Amino acid sequence: xxxxxxxxxxxxxxxxxxxxxxxxxxxxxxxxxxxxxxxxxxxxxxxxxxxxxxxxxxxxxxxxxxxxxxxxxxxxxxxxxxxxxxxxxxxxxxxxxxxxxxxxxxxxxxxxxxxxxxxxxxxxxxxxxxxxxxxxxxxxxxxxxxxxxxxxxxxxxxxxxxxxxxxxxxxxxxxxxxxxxxxxxxxxxxxxxxxxxxxxxxxxxxxxxxxxxxxxxxxxxxxxxxxxxxxxxxxxxxxxxxxxxxxxxxxxxxxxxxxxxxxxxxxxxxxxxxxxxxxxxxxxxxxxxxxxxxxxxxxxxxxxxxxxxxxxxxxxxxxxxxxxxxxxxxxxxxxxxxxxxxxxxxxxxxxxxxxxxxxx
Length: 360
Description:
The chain has two domains: about 180 residues, Glycogen Phosphorylase B (Rossmann fold); about 170 residues, Glycogen Phosphorylase B (Rossmann fold). The chain is built from 14 helices and 13 strands. Strands 3-2-1-4-5-6-7 form a seven-stranded parallel sheet, with helices on both faces. A six-stranded parallel sheet has the order 10-9-8-11-12-13, with helices on both faces. Helix 5 links the parallel strand 5 and strand 6. It is elongated. This is Glycosyltransferase.
């Protein structure tokens, strides 16, 4: 394929804050210099500003997850007009409904690509229909396995390209609160992610009393925003854990924040291939992470981090305490984490995506 002749439409649900949206931004950065035109369609979000700064046109469309028949018809008409107006040659989707819209709208001359960002066990007929004429990219081996085994899609239809994070520039901008904790002799444990059911933050919060009992000079910092924020804040208050648990809110400088912590906990209940451990490894921090879906493809138990069962508060407490008691283990894991990061570097992602496109 001649990349310079292509007009790419990245079709996604939102451009809010999140892992999928981050991948869309990365792909825009990769392909803008290589193709004729890149545009993005979504229902919008704060990352529209980043697209604007990159010189990427964004079209606001109805939420593609909307089930109302009138909205579905409106969305089909809207996307079809954009595809025709921009002379789109490739539609690259980042949501199952986005892929379904592409299947319904695009003629045989338009190439369809879709990223599978998570594992699912539902909507089998819809998913098979959405992906039937689409080249698929799975963000991890477990995501591919889910597509092949549960959805019964051909293995050769799915290519694995791991998510990635750009390297940290090393310029640490001190966060006053974390600096204060450090100066007062506290260890700092972080949990970074969207405040939603998926990330299992309530289990992290429930683990804090057990850790504090043994290591009272420990602070827990939750970084992120989301629909469960109020519920989680109230939960901390009800447990009288305000002194130990801090909500830092959304941060655009995740690597900078992580670099000022001792280690990270990932308490997710499900994942595709999570960015959080890659971000942690990029700044040489180890993780205690739930062994769900693609996470064990990044975190090697006993080598660069510790894997635990999801929802197991007792095991989470035990392993957090183990690291706090064994600083030499943290140091050893951090060396391995830095090395492991090389497998998930942005340059590797760039090379893999460009090669994927070129051979189509």
